[in-house]
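Blinded run. Sample ID left blank on purpose so nobody reads anything into the name before looking at the predicted structure. Input follows.
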Amino acid sequence: MQTKTIVVHLENAALCPARLATAVDMASRHGAHLTGLFMSIEEFDGDVYGRSRGRGLRGARQDRLTQESGQAQADFEAACSAAGLASYRFTTEIGEDEHDLEVHARAADLLIVSDVQERTLEDRFVRGLPETLALSSGLPVLVLPQEFEGSFDPKTVLVAWKSSREAVRAVRDNLGLLQAADQVTILSVGNAEESGQLPADQILNFLTRHGVKAQVRHDYGDTAPGKVILATAEEIGADALIMGAHGHPSWRNLVLGNTTRHVLRHHRMPLLLSH
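Blinded prediction complete.
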């Protein structure tokens, strides 16, 4: 699939400039439209301070968010202009949950977010974005680790394979990226797959027919799959990890598979999730 529309999540955070630079670089290389979406979600109930003081605090909060949004827009437009992007747009959503971001994402090919450590309520929201969006947005999500800077143009890629709809979707969503890579490793973890399902060797044949240079690697040990996936990614020097996001969004909570949860919490290379 060609990448022609990218949405990047923007907020008032130290990780934002690096994420924006990565998104602008990707849009430039792919000739894609880039949407910069500033979002800030903070739990705030001014009424607990009394009606009069609550109004003042609510107004001060809105003024601060307006200022932060204005700065984010200036930074976004300056970066896009400097890179010579032909098509870009900035928009702001101040809301109560992540659904505004989902709506924007559904008209895109790729969504870029960052993984962060929880330090504030805002961080807690941002940290929940990757799994929320992977399970509910309907498009691939690129999760950049905290320490990532620079261009995302991976040449050594690890595919965490499981005979599942999510894994098939992840491979198909990133076929162009896999075709451009120099080395692709398909990792199958756990016991031999049951007959009637799609084994790793068959997905290798599929990729080979699409011009992807790939190899299969099996691990039949007892170590938890999430740990094996990350250890293998480190061993081969993977600069991208592709996997299906297993789980489902419920009304109030996300139900993630153990492997997806472990990888999300511990990955140190860019992660591409599909559901």
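Unblinding after everyone has recorded impressions. DSSP finds nine helices and twelve strands in the chain.
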